[in-house]
Design a protein that fits this description.
transmembrane, DUF4870 domain-containing protein, membrane, transmembrane helix, elongated, 4 helices
Length: about 110
């Protein structure tokens, strides 16, 4: 299997786990661990997908911790972060299907 195909498959697994993580926390953490462990697929278009996944993971973790840190506004913050992560996952899936770069993976949306 070519490095390009292997990287594409890894991004598929990360996207699947992140999508399941919107309903359950455990797959979200598994996707984050995989994104960090596999690292960027340097030299391929999938490197932007890895950077995008890592950033999505950390913002999702911050959102999950919001109800613990600030109970008064935490649930509202959790809902906003959940919607934001769902929007980023939609963008990730569309880019994966089209096999295209995610432009500026460091931006918020």
């Amino acid at each position: 299997m070519s490095p390009e195909a292997r990287a594409r498959r890894r991004v598929l697994w990360m996207n699947l786990l992140f999508s399941a993580g919107l309903a359950l926390a455990l797959p979200w953490f598994a996707a984050g661990v995989l994104a960090h462990r596999w690292g960027p697929a340097r030299g391929t278009l999938w490197s932007t997908h890895h950077a995008y996944a890592v950033r999505t993971f950390w913002f999702g973790v911050v959102g999950m911790l919001a109800p613990i840190v600030a109970p008064g506004v935490g649930l509202g913050m959790l809902a906003i972060v959940w919607l934001w992560c769902a929007a980023r996952l939609t963008r990730a899936w569309l880019a994966w299907e089209r096999e295209e770069w995610i432009t500026d993976p460091g931006r918020f949306v």
